[in-house]
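hiii so um. not sure if this is the right channel but i have a protein structure encoded as C-alpha cells and i wanna go backwards to a sequence. like what aa goes where. can anyone help
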C-alpha cells in the first residue's frame, strides 16, 4: 500500500551505459558529520527554530527532518516559498551491478534507483508533496520554473534523461533525453539541447515540443554536443552557440531563425566555458565575442547586436568575455585585453552608445568571473585573487586570496575556480568552489565563515542561505547576520 502523501510515477529508463555526469547541481558535502561549520547540533522538529549557538556568523533558521539516505540536489523556488530535495536509493547491490556489466544487461538493471523528490515549505518546514520515481543511478539536478508551477529533474544516465513535473497536479508533462538549458523568464518555455545537437523548445503547460531548432553542429566523441542556448528576459528571442559555426538568433515563439551573428568565437560559448550573458536585461541588445588571430598575438573583440533584427550595431576592441550587465541594464562589464595596459583588469561600457566609462586597474590582476552586486554599487572579480571594487569611485575595497581546487576529470587536470554570488541585499558575497565556501562581508571585506568541502547553496529572496548539512542527511536554512 502506498503512503497517502506519495504520488507514484512510472517511466521508461535510458538503456545507455552509465558515463560521466555533466549536469550537476549537487552541493558537494564535507566528509565530517554535523552541520555546515563542523559543529554538532541537535536537529529540531520541522517548523521550529534551530539552536543558533555554534556558527560564528550564521544562525540556522530552520533544519528539515533528516533523511535515511543522502540528499542529492537541493533547490529553492524563485519566490523563496518552496524547497525541493531529492534522495535516491540503489535498487541493485554492487555485486548485481557488476554482474550486469559483465553480462551486458541493460542500464536500468544495473543502475536503477528508487528516488524521492520532496517539496517543502521553506517557511515552516512542512512537507508539501512527495514524488516517487525510478531513475537511472540518481537524480542529479532539480530546477524550478520561474513561476514555481513546474519542476525539472535530470538523472544520471548519459545523455541525461529529463523529466518535467506539474507541481499542481503531480502530472509528468515531459520525459526524454537531453541537456538542461533553462526556462524562459515567464516560465512558459523550457529550452533543452539533444544528442543530435539540436535545440528543442518545450511548452511547459502541456509538455509538448513546440519547436526544433536545427543548428547543424556535429556531435563530438562520447555523444557530446557543444550547443548552448541563451534566452532573452523579454521572452522574445534566443541565441544558439556551438563549437563549429556562428551563433544564430531565433524567435522564441515560432522557432524561426532571424539572423546569423557572424564572426562569433565558438571557444567563448562552448560547453566547457560555462555561462555568459548574451542578452541585456531588457532583451533589446545582444553581445557576442570573437578572436582575430595575428600570430603571435590574438585580438579580442565584443560585437554588439540589435536583438530584434540581428543587425550589428558596433564592435568594441580589446574586450572579452565574461560579459556581465549591470542590474539596471545600462552598463556592462567585460574583461580588458589591452596588451599596452597590463594592469587593466576589467572595464565598464555604456550599452546604448558603447562608450568606455571606466577601467579598473590592479597590478598583475587577472579577471576571471565578474559579478555585480544587486544594488549596482559593487563588483566582485575572481581570478588570481578575489577583488571587490567600488563601482562609483573605481577604488579597490578588498583583496583576498583565492582557494583553488585542482581535480582530475575525463578531460584532464583542471582548476576548479571560485564562483561568485551576492546576497539579494548586496551585503554578503558567497565565494565557492568544490573545496570551500566563504561568506564575506562586502562592506568590511571580512571573511565571516570559511566552510571546507561545502559547495554553494542558494539564496532566497529574503536573504536566507539554504544548504545541505555536512552529513548530507538534511537541509538547513541559515539566517545571515543582521545589520
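sure thing!! here u go:
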Amino acid at each position: 500500500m502506498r503512503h497517502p502523501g506519495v504520488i507514484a510515477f512510472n517511466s521508461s529508463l535510458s538503456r545507455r551505459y552509465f558515463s560521466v555526469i555533466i549536469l550537476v547541481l549537487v552541493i558537494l558535502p564535507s566528509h565530517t558529520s554535523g552541520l555546515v561549520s563542523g559543529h554538532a547540533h541537535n536537529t529540531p522538529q520541522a517548523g521550529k527554530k534551530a539552536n543558533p549557538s555554534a556558527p560564528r556568523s550564521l544562525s540556522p533558521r530552520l533544519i528539515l527532518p533528516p533523511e535515511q539516505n543522502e540528499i542529492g540536489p537541493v533547490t529553492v523556488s524563485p519566490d523563496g516559498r518552496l524547497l525541493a530535495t531529492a534522495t535516491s536509493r540503489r535498487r541493485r547491490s554492487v555485486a548485481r551491478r557488476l554482474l550486469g556489466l559483465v553480462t551486458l544487461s541493460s542500464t536500468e538493471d544495473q543502475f536503477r534507483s528508487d528516488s524521492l523528490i520532496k517539496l517543502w515549505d521553506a517557511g515552516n518546514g512542512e512537507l508539501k508533496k512527495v514524488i516517487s520515481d525510478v531513475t537511472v543511478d540518481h537524480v542529479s539536478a532539480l530546477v524550478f520554473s520561474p513561476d514555481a508551477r513546474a519542476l525539472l529533474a535530470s538523472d544520471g544516465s548519459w545523455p541525461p534523461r529529463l523529466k518535467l513535473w506539474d507541481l499542481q497536479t503531480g502530472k509528468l508533462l515531459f520525459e526524454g533525453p537531453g541537456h538542461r538549458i533553462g526556462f524562459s523568464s515567464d516560465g512558459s518555455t523550457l529550452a533543452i539541447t539533444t544528442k543530435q545537437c539540436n535545440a528543442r523548445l518545450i511548452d511547459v503547460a502541456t509538455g509538448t515540443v513546440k519547436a526544433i531548432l536545427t543548428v547543424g553542429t556535429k556531435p563530438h566523441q562520447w555523444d557530446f554536443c557543444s550547443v548552448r542556448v541563451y534566452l532573452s528576459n523579454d521572452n522574445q528571442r534566443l541565441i544558439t552557440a556551438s563549437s563549429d559555426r556562428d551563433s544564430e538568433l531565433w524567435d522564441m515563439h515560432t522557432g524561426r531563425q532571424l539572423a546569423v551573428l557572424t564572426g562569433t568565437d565558438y571557444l567563448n560559448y562552448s560547453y566547457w566555458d560555462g555561462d555568459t550573458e548574451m542578452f541585456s536585461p531588457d532583451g533589446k541588445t545582444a553581445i557576442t565575442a570573437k578572436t582575430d588571430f595575428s600570430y603571435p598575438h590574438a585580438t579580442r573583440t565584443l560585437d554588439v547586436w540589435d536583438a530584434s533584427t540581428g543587425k550589428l550595431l558596433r564592435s568594441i576592441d580589446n574586450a572579452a568575455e565574461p560579459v556581465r550587465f549591470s542590474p539596471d541594464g545600462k552598463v556592462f562589464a567585460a574583461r580588458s585585453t589591452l596588451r599596452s595596459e597590463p594592469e587593466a583588469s576589467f572595464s565598464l561600457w555604456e550599452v546604448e552608445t558603447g562608450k568606455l566609462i571606466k577601467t579598473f586597474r590592479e597590478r598583475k590582476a587577472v579577471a576571471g568571473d565578474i559579478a555585480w552586486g544587486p544594488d549596482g554599487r559593487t563588483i566582485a572579480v575572481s581570478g588570481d585573487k578575489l577583488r571587490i571594487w567600488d563601482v562609483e569611485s573605481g577604488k579597490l575595497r578588498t583583496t583576498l586570496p583565492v582557494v583553488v581546487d585542482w581535480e582530475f576529470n575525463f578531460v584532464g587536470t583542471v582548476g576548479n575556480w571560485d564562483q561568485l554570488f551576492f546576497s539579494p541585499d548586496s551585503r554578503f558575497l558567497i565565494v565557492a568552489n568544490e573545496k570551500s565556501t566563504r561568506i564575506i562581508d562586502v562592506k568590511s571585506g571580512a571573511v565571516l565563515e570559511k566552510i571546507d568541502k561545502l559547495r554553494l547553496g542558494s539564496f532566497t529572496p529574503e536573504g536566507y542561505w539554504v544548504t545541505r548539512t555536512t552529513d548530507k542527511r538534511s537541509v538547513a536554512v541559515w539566517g545571515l547576520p543582521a545589520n
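oh and Residues 1-176+458-483 form one domain.
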